[in-house]
Amino acid sequence: MQHDLNKITNFLSKHHVLNLSTTDGHELSSCSLFYAFDKAKISFVVASNENTTHIKNILKNPFVAGTVVLETKIVGKIEGVQFRGEFLPLSDESLKTIYFKRFPYALTMQSILWEIKINYFKLTDNTLGFGKKIIWQRVP
User: Fold this and answer.
1) What is the DSSP annotation of 9-23?
2) Could you read off the pLDDT of 106-122 as tens digits, one per residue?
3) What's the CATH architecture for 2-137?
């Protein structure tokens, strides 16, 4: 299980934009966000403003899903992660530090930092064989 998580976090360390899907129970919304990933807490850190549709949805329903993908047309190089988790106000100072280290210019913005605590990952990695899937789930 740890070996699988290492493959996933290695992929995530090479990217910086995630696609997020949210719902308020009636309408769906998708957006793209810059992220920093904390391997120890298995959480994304993102910045966003409370007047966005996705944050308004999250305040009603904190459960989210999303993806991080490598954009390529070469089938043998296709890689991507699907995830599910809970979108929470950020309270951990160490997570703030990793976000601002990765995106120092964000210090000048009026965004609020949030944590996406991951419960489920599915990595598709065709470099390991066509259609190879690796699944990780948080143990309750």
Assistant:
1) HHHHHT--EEEEEEE
2) 988 877 999 999 999 99
3) Roll (2.30)
Structure confidence at residue 64 as a pLDDT band (50, 70, 90): very high
Q: Tell if the pTM clears 0.85, that is, is over it.
A: yes
Domain segments of the chain as ranges: 2-137
Which residues touch 61 (CB under 8 Å, ≥6 apart)?
A: 22, 23, 24, 25
H helix count then E strand count, the chain: 3, 7
Chain centroid to CA 17: 8
Helix (H, G, I), strand (E, B) or coil at 103: coil
Please report, for residues 17, 31, 78, 126, the alpha-carbon distance to residue 74 in angstroms, rounded to integers and kept in the order given.
20, 25, 7, 10
What is the rounded CA–CA span in Å between residue 97 and residue 87? 18
Is 34 strand, coil or helix? strand
CA distances to 54, 79, 121, 126, 138 from 11, in Å: 25, 8, 12, 13, 18
